[in-house]
Please model this.
Amino acid sequence: MSRILVIEDESAIRRVLVKILSEENENYKVEEAEDGLMGLEAIKKEDFDLVLCDIKMPKMDGVEVLVAARKIKPEIPFIMISGHGDLDTAVNTMRLGAFDYISKPPDLNRLLTTVRNALDRKDLVVENKILKKKVSKNYEMIGDSKEISVIKEMIEKVAPTDARVLITGSNGTGKELVAHWIHEKSERNANPLIEVNCAAIPSELIESELFGHVKGAFTSAVKDRAGKFEAANNGTIFLDEIGDMSLSAQAKVLRALQENKISRVGSDKDIKVDVRVVAATNKDLKKEIEGGRFREDLYHRLAVILIKVPALNDRRDDIPLLIKHFSEKIAAEQGTAPKKFSAKAIDLLKGYDWTGNIRELRNVVERLIILGGNEVTDEDVKSFASK
Model:
């Protein structure tokens, strides 16, 4: 049931609004407040799915109610009720976050359509928040070792800024995880994080992938196409395995970082972009620079903040927590109860040489869950871990 609050000081209009909404849908529970102050108190104490709020009211006007409510419960959509002389103010309230406005006397069809659209928008906001929490949990950093604690502290400091970050570490250590955490904790998290695996894209296509192209730029360019930088506008672009990027593409990335401009392949037209760049590599870029395979000026542009993700062998104290996390996650995926690992099994796994890092550990945990007994024992580890 959707709870709707009507804040209106004119009792006749308030009664009409309550009557219309109550009769329109039996799933609407409509409550009322006779001035702005009472309305704001109700919003503080109760959870509403929608607020219809008059603009001109005693004690506290509608604009003040909107601004105050947005600070405490920003997810509630507001529909402002405006008299003829309030139209300019009503339009301005939309800049302050109102969903829409309706004029007095209210047109029945417009009122009901606006209410339905506002409630649909509220549902989408809630779904997005739930999805975001799920996504955040999928990219949760597991571990309380000194090495991981240092990274978490760095992310807390760096994420709210727009500083570019270069993440280094061997394959399977969780560089992508760090990139996601930086984006999730940044001010850009309402906008997209666009991932580009530079090693997976042929060198002749990387520029088109990153910057887009115009029709006719090359044989298969049958129409204009936006690139990843444009898709990430106002958000974050994650350039994974940037050490594998061609020198030609590196030059264009450098220009994008210097000037906040890109140009599509085959075009001279500049496109302004506002993108935060997070990059990752498993290569030693200083050696790549010495070998002439990576631009030194690009390195210094990217490496404003350096985060080195440790190998699993360097954070063995986190292995029990990781085993528990993977066991619970795999059980949820398979619809079964999580399996317990015996202390001896965990000790054995802590002593292995994890050349494949966390990715390898996850695979081993899944194998042991499938092939082991009700409780994974040291014997199961010896039989199935294949070390």
